[in-house]
Amino acid sequence: MSRIVAGSAGGQRIQVPATGVRPTSDRVREALFSLLTARGVLEDAAVLDLYAGSGALGLEALSRGALTATLVERDPRACAVIQTNARTTGLRGALVRRASVPTFLRRATDTVDLVFVDPPYAGTEDEVDTVLALLVPWLGPDALVVVERDSRTRTPAWPEGIVAEEARVYGETTLHLAGTPEA
């Protein structure tokens, strides 16, 4: 069982799919969202949560002031859990999309302010690099991208259109932050 750390739904427990996901720990989520709050990127943001799993990242963003969160997950059981979590927390603005992340990103129609890329640690770095390249058309001005990876994997290969900013290490988890280039 996991929980929403803070905001309008703070403290509420959320379900986690029984298999196939590795939820971001409450400790890492709390550190990440403290950073995002300090940067002022959450208020009224359009969020894209890729490899959503339980929906914890997208729902946490909604709880802390994001306007919308599109949660993309290919596993139908995980999608059902995300739907339940959105309903039980009472958070509005959650839109669950069942699709593989690359397939979903190839249909770029909207721009977003904040993106979470949190694939299974077993996924390859090449897959992450492909997703980042497909993500570029989705990014609005001043967008922020957060990639969560196992600390033993290499830094993502940032494509043109995404500029690496910093990496934060929390034990076995590394959060890679990047943004759009200044005009």
Automatic annotation (TrEMBL):
GO terms for molecular function: 16S rRNA (guanine(966)-N(2))-methyltransferase activity. Its EC number is 2.1.1.171. Transmembrane segments: none annotated. It comes from the Bacteria. Keywords: Methyltransferase, Transferase. This is 16S rRNA (Guanine(966)-N(2))-methyltransferase RsmD. The lineage of its organism: Bacteria, Bacillati, Actinomycetota, Actinomycetes, Pseudonocardiales. The gene is rsmD.
